[in-house]
Amino acid sequence: MTALGDLIEIDDRTVLVLGRELDIDRDQPDVANVLVHNTGDTLVLVDTGVTTAFRAALQDAAGRVGHYSRALLLTTHGHPDHVGNNDLADELGVPAEHYVPAPDVDQMRDPASYRWSRSVSAHSVSPAGPSPTARSAYCAATATAPGT
């Protein structure tokens, strides 16, 4: 049986951090799965999940995939269960870039203005926008997105 934050080592450079489905009866938020991969010098995080326990699992996974000198955070979309630990990029101790889909840019810049931020607070989770380190990279990335 698997649980929130379990690590599945795909290979020596790739770890899947398991999330969980929404469980309304137990008042548990859904948490996205996260892929952590080291390309050689770059740590790639695909989403960051949410909750303190999940954050600890992400830190563990980042330590397992080997040394890296920069980080790349890829946000698939701006739902809270995918972005709740985005500020982890600031704690990795390396330069970080953050890329988000163009339709989610406004939400990532000002998460408090979006209706889901109130529902997330019921679970003691603060939605996180882009880190100050990553802000310029994500703005630059979305400025060149098709249709912008």
Task: Please provide a written account of the structure.
This protein has helices at residues 52-64, 80-83, 105-109, 116-121, 132-143, and strands at residues 7-11, 14-17, 34-38, 42-46, 70-74, 96-99. With 148 residues, it is of the alpha/beta class. The N and C termini lie far apart (44 Å). It is globular and about 40 Å long. The chain has a six-stranded mixed sheet. The chain is built from five helices and six strands, in the order ββββαβαβααα.
Keywords for this structure?
148 residues; alpha/beta; six-stranded mixed β-sheet; 5 helices
Report the oligomer: single chain
The percent range for strand residues is 15-25%
- How do the helices and strands follow one another from N- to C-terminus? EEEEHEHEHHH
* Helix percentage range: 25-40%
Query: What is the CA-based Rg, rounded?
Result: 15 Å
What is the distance, rounded to the nearest whole angstrom, between the alpha carbons of the first and last residues? 44 Å
The count of strands amounts to 6
Order of strands, widest sheet: 1-2-3-4-5-6
Q: Which structural category do the helix and sheet elements fall into?
A: alpha/beta
* Low-confidence sequence ranges: 115-148
> Biggest sheet, in brief?
6 strands, mixed
Question: What gross morphology would you assign?
Answer: globular
Annotation field: number of helices = 5
Write the layout of secondary structure elements.
Layout: E1 7-11, E2 14-17, E3 34-38, E4 42-46, H1 52-64, E5 70-74, H2 80-83, E6 96-99, H3 105-109, H4 116-121, H5 132-143
Parallel strand pairs: 4-5, 5-6
Antiparallel strand pairs: 1-2, 2-3, 3-4
